[in-house]
């Protein structure tokens, strides 16, 4: 472990995450903890009321998105968490003028950063950005670049910063204990969440867009419960911890109003079902769009309600004092 | 004042936000020295002696042993405490005197020597325009985390015995009953607490908000029961929730930060009968940008309000606060302690 002299480091000998004895010694107990999808294949996780805008006062736009854990047990029998929730914060700084040293740009320069908090995943993450985070940043930038009307802000730059407070997992944690490899599926869910949350933040910042982009994920999984044993099913908005055998997955950034895709990221062996998978992801994106629209509408209503009352008050004031020329 | 005239005609005055951005110092001074009011409000609507009351939510993060989300006005902070295990054989005990007893002695050397507490802060999350991500932690962030760490250590908040993972070899335990000898207890490992604080938004007074978040997160921390497994010969944990242990915190130190705003008076001949400087409680980002002198008082009243202990006083940047003002500030901090303690009690 390399030491970072600008931060506080842990013991030089290194530390290890706690190891739960029941999970190590008793494979049957471990398997009993395996979560399963309780939703139908086309049913999305509910993010209703968990999308908020304007949470960072000093940023020009910001949003918070939370997709809760698929199941919530009131009295947990184990300290091991079955799966992870998805919690994202996005804040937007700008558009603001570029520094003089930067060469001329006729349109808005978009910079996207995705950073996982150290406590975002089951194993502790570092503070320095790793390859996965850079990769996510580039994908997010592609998704947003096609939406923003950049020509309206020449010589300006905007920073889109997404902090992942809690990220979706690549698979069930028990499979890691058993030595199975994670396929990096979780980043797809994180990307879809990043697209949705930054879209809300961009709308909050008042940056002109051609449409509202939203993210969605679909996956093809091998269904162990089926009679043939290896039948594959398409599921929308998968929680990868719920599925044992994932064949392929796809995340898209989708513009529902124009029926356009700005970003698609596919992993796994898609085979001949590419269209079906992509279509599923767009369906999931439309699902998150409806929540997105509701949240934005609420935010606008709250904003204009405030302005309307202020307007009324000032109107009253002018009435009582004297006539004022309101033109100009 | 300014807003009213801006409506009417292109007059020689600006709307408030532009006035504040163009000349922040006179803007705040105009607010504080406005006549006719007993307690003139600051630009943010609070009076000089007003604190922002924090709101706290704990246990929001899945993968932490303890966590808290704290909002103080426009500043919001997420803190997660995660315990990891430092194995006994990795402990470098060369320069640290370690005793396995349950004593209440001074265990700061043990905690700081072995680096059992690892606090860190992240400001570059778009929380403020001043900290753009992709850069190394700024001087401000480094100062902040160093202050938090020294506060954690000097207040001796965490007990080393909560972090020790002990093991009594079975053979020795049997003999003990017969011979009445002291059991040989070995330290097989330690819990290392990674205390990560992420700023969601920063509107001044980062230290107070971060510290309250750390306190609330530590208070909500439940570490699983850890023990040395003879069969596997490693330290393992039990996943039964009822066996998880709380951390027993020593006291409840709470910091209060003050900023001193010095007025500027250009006409020296002119008589000015008002105040020349103001001590502002719990400054926001705008006030921090125009104030140079900062005072931070850490008090702990957990032993009773009459025995309010001053744990630390930090002061930098100017000479306005003297002995008398400092007394007032300590008093204000004590009042603040009661409020914050009340909020912390509610969430527990």
Automatic annotation (TrEMBL), chain A:
GO terms for molecular function: RNA binding. GO terms for biological process: nuclear mRNA surveillance; poly(A)-dependent snoRNA 3'-end processing; rRNA catabolic process; rRNA processing; U4 snRNA 3'-end processing. It is found in: Cytoplasm; Nucleus. Residues 51-207 form the Exoribonuclease phosphorolytic domain. Coiled coil: none annotated. One of its GO terms (cellular component) is cytoplasmic exosome (RNase complex). Gene3D superfamilies: GHMP Kinase, N-terminal domain. Keywords: Cytoplasm, Exosome, Nucleus, RNA-binding, rRNA processing. Belongs to the RNase PH family. This is Exoribonuclease family protein. The lineage of its organism: Eukaryota, Fungi, Dikarya, Ascomycota, Pezizomycotina.
TrEMBL record, chain B:
This is Ribosomal RNA-processing protein 43. Gene3D superfamilies: GHMP Kinase, N-terminal domain. Pfam families: RNase_PH. It is found in: Cytoplasm; Nucleus, Nucleolus. InterPro entries: ExoRNase_PH_dom1, ExoRNase_PH_dom2_sf, Exosome_comp_Rrp42_subfam, PNPase/RNase_PH_dom_sf, Ribosomal_Su5_D2-typ_SF. Its main location: cytoplasm. Keywords: Cytoplasm, Exosome, Nucleus, Ribonucleoprotein, Ribosomal protein, RNA-binding, rRNA processing. Belongs to the RNase PH family. GO terms for cellular component: cytoplasmic exosome (RNase complex); nuclear exosome (RNase complex); nucleolus; ribosome. One of its GO terms (molecular function) is mRNA 3'-UTR AU-rich region binding. GO terms for biological process: exonucleolytic trimming to generate mature 3'-end of 5.8S rRNA from tricistronic rRNA transcript (SSU-rRNA, 5.8S rRNA, LSU-rRNA); nuclear mRNA surveillance; nuclear polyadenylation-dependent rRNA catabolic process; rRNA catabolic process; TRAMP-dependent tRNA surveillance pathway; U1 snRNA 3'-end processing; U4 snRNA 3'-end processing; U5 snRNA 3'-end processing. The lineage of its organism: Eukaryota, Fungi, Dikarya, Ascomycota, Pezizomycotina. Residues 51-224 form the Exoribonuclease phosphorolytic domain. It comes from the Eukaryota. It comes from Amniculicola lignicola CBS 123094.
């Amino acid at each position: 472990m390399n030491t970072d002299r600008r931060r506080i480091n842990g013991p030089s000998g290194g530390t290890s995450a706690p190891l739960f004895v029941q999970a190590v010694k008793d494979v049957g107990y471990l398997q009993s903890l395996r979560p399963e999808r309780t939703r139908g294949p086309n049913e999305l996780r509910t993010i209703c009321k968990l999308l908020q805008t304007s949470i960072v006062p000093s940023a020009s736009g910001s949003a918070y998105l939370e997709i809760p854990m698929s199941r919530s047990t009131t009295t947990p029998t184990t300290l091991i968490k079955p799966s992870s929730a998805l919690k994202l914060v996005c804040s937007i700084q700008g558009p603001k003028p570029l520094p003089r040293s930067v060469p001329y740009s006729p349109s808005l320069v978009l910079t996207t950063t995705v950073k996982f908090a150290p406590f975002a995943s089951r194993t502790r993450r570092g503070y320095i950005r790793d390859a996965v985070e850079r990769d996510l940043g580039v994908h997010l930038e592609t998704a947003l670049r096609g939406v923003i009307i950049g020509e309206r802000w020449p010589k300006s730059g905007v920073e889109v910063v997404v902090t992942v407070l809690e990220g979706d997992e690549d698979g069930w944690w028990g499979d890691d204990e058993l030595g199975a490899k994670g396929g990096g599926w979780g980043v797809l869910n994180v990307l879809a969440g990043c697209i949705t949350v930054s879209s809300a933040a961009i709308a909050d910042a008042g940056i002109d867009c051609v449409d509202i982009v939203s993210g969605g994920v679909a996956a093809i999984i091998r269904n162990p419960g089926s009679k043939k044993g290896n039948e594959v099913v398409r599921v929308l908005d998968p929680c990868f911890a719920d599925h044992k055998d994932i064949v392929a997955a796809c995340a898209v950034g989708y513009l529902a109003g124009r029926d356009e895709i700005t970003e698609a990221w596919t992993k796994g062996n898609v085979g001949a079902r590419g269209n079906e998978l992509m279509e599923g992801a767009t369906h999931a994106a439309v699902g998150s769009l409806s929540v997105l629209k509701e949240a934005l509408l609420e935010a606008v209503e709250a904003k204009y309600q405030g302005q309307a009352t202020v307007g009324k008050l000032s109107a009253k004031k002018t009435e009582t004092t004297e006539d004022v020329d309101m033109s100009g | 004042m300014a807003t009213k005239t801006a409506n009417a005609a292109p007059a020689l005055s600006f709307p408030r936000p532009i006035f504040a951005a163009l000349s922040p110092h006179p803007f705040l001074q105009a607010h504080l020295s406005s006549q006719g009011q007993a307690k003139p409000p600051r630009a943010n609507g609070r009076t000089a002696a007003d604190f922002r009351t924090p709101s706290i939510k704990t246990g929001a993060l899945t993968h932490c042993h303890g966590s808290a989300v704290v909002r103080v006005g426009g500043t919001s902070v997420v803190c997660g405490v995660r315990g990891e295990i430092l194995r006994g054989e990795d402990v470098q005990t060369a320069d640290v005197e370690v005793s396995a007893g349950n004593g209440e002695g001074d265990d700061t050397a043990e905690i700081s020597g072995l680096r059992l507490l690892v606090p860190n802060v992240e400001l570059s999350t778009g929380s403020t325009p001043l900290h753009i991500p992709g850069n190394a932690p700024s001087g401000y962030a480094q100062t902040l985390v160093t202050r938090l760490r020294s506060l954690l250590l000097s207040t001796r908040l965490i007990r080393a015995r909560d972090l020790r993972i002990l093991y009594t070899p079975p053979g020795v335990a049997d003999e003990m009953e017969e011979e009445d000898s002291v059991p040989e207890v070995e330290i097989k490992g330690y819990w290392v607490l990674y205390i990560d604080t992420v700023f969601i938004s920063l509107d001044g007074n980062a230290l107070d908000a971060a510290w309250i978040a750390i306190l609330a997160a530590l208070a909500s921390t439940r570490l699983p029961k850890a023990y040395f497994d003879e069969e596997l010969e490693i330290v393992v944990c039990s996943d039964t929730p009822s066996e998880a242990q709380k951390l027993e915190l020593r006291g409840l130190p709470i910091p209060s930060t003050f900023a001193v705003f010095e007025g500027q008076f250009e006409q020296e001949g002119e008589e000015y009968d008002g105040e020349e400087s103001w001590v502002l409680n719990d400054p926001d980002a705008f006030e921090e940008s125009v104030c140079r002198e900062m005072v931070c008082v850490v008090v702990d009243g957990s032993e009773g309000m009459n025995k309010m202990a001053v744990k630390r006083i930090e002061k930098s940047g100017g000479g306005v606060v003297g002995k008398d003002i400092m007394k007032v500030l300590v008093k204000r901090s004590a009042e603040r302690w009661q409020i914050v303690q009340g909020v912390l009690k509610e969430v527990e």
